[in-house]
């Protein structure tokens, strides 16, 4: 079981340089305690960007529903289909990569490894369930280092092959111009594909 150590409240990662209170705490976001993190979001320009992106994400989901013309019942069905698809895909990735080291830091495989995305699922809809975009990753890299993109990008080409890596980069570029809108049918296709390759 992973033990969380108390550390002083001091900005790291996206909050690097933001001066926290310095008090030791177990629960931190970007190195900041629960009292200082809201201050970072309200007072620091980087924090304001995080809030803006979070609001944008919610609005984007709402716009996607409106674009599809979905009623409440259909929205619930689509949300359920997303959750089911995510569970199926992530379970497959964890089984596929069992025994392999963490894609980002090369730490030895552990049973609590997660399915970590190279291109973030929330930002790249088209690649949310793409199998080359998801690899076995330790909790430290996936949760506490925000995916450890630097290490991920170093190791991914050899893990999936350079040709597949280049194709993934190409698809990410397309996603920024024309993102995918998921529906019940194409989510079912993803789940069926997993059943076929198991």
Could you please describe the fold and organization of this structure?
The longest helix has 25 residues, at 72-96. The radius of gyration is 19 Å and the shape is globular. It has helices spanning 36-43, 45-68, 72-96, 139-144, 149-160, 162-177, 184-197, and strands spanning 7-8, 24-25, 114-117, 134-137. The mean pLDDT is 87. The strands form two sheets. The protein has a two-stranded antiparallel sheet. It is mainly α and 198 residues long. The protein has two domains: 1-69, no CATH class; 70-197, no CATH class. It has seven helices and four strands. The relative contact order is 0.10.
Total strands: the figure is 4
The helix/strand order is EEHHHEEHHHH
Q: Please, what is the average pLDDT?
A: 87
Taken from the alpha-carbon principal axes, the silhouette is: globular
Query: Rg to the nearest angstrom?
Result: 19 Å
Provide the spatial order of strands within the biggest beta sheet: 1-2
Q: Which percent range describes the beta-strand content?
A: 5-15%
- State the major sheet: 2 strands, antiparallel
Which helices and strands appear, and what pairs or packs with what?
Layout: E1 7-8, E2 24-25, H1 36-43, H2 45-68, H3 72-96, E3 114-117, E4 134-137, H4 139-144, H5 149-160, H6 162-177, H7 184-197
Helix pairs in contact: 1-2, 3-7, 5-6
């Amino acid at each position: 079981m992973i033990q969380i150590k108390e550390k002083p409240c001091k900005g790291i990662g996206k909050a690097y340089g933001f001066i926290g209170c310095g008090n030791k705490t177990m629960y931190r976001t970007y190195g900041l305690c629960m009292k200082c993190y809201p201050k970072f979001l309200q007072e620091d320009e980087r924090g304001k960007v995080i809030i803006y992106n979070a609001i944008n994400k919610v609005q984007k989901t709402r716009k996607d529903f409106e674009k599809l013309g979905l009623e409440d019942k259909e929205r619930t069905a689509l949300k359920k289909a997303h959750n089911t698809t995510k569970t199926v895909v992530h379970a497959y990735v964890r089984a596929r990569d069992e025994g392999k080291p963490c894609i980002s830091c090369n730490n030895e495989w552990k049973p609590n490894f997660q399915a970590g995305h190279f291109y973030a699922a929330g930002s790249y809809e088209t690649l949310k369930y793409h199998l080359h975009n998801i690899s076995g990753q330790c909790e430290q890299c996936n949760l506490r280092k925000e995916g450890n993109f630097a290490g991920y990008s170093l190791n991914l080409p050899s893990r999936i092959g350079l040709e597949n890596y280049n194709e993934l980069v190409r698809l990410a570029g397309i996603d920024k111009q024309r993102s995918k809108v998921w529906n019940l049918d194409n989510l079912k296709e993803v789940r069926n594909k997993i059943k076929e390759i198991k």
